[in-house]
Specification:
The protein is mostly beta strands. About 5% of the residues lie in helices and about 75% in strands.
Length: about 140
Amino acid sequence: GITLQGGAEYPFTDHLSAAIGADIFYSRSVPKWGDAENAGVYFRQVTPSIKIQYSTGAEPGKGLILFGGFAIRAGKTHHFESGEYHNGTFLNPVFVTEKISGHGFILGGGYGFRLSETMLGRIEFSNHTFLMLNDQYTISFKVRF
């Protein structure tokens, strides 16, 4: 699927900042199923978050970055539930639509570096741990203006 991320940061000091953001994810297939089981399926979610970040660099957002915070996850999925299995294929597939919601914590880290006079780049890994939902792991490359 496709993930879009956006956010804003507010620096408290050269090393400490707060960040708000949102991840939006959308997919139209489940890798483990074939074309018949993926007909009309979708998965979409939005994950707004707030976190506190610490960076080791001489400028805000540069060097090693560690962060933690809180996130809320909401969305909807329409997916294959069951069917009659015959000769390697599911016949009469049954699909289900479910709402997704949960809240949890974010932990992660990364490395920030200068791309130009006005832009910073960041490579980041984060783990969103949700109560009653699967964890969400993200590796991303971000550009900050």
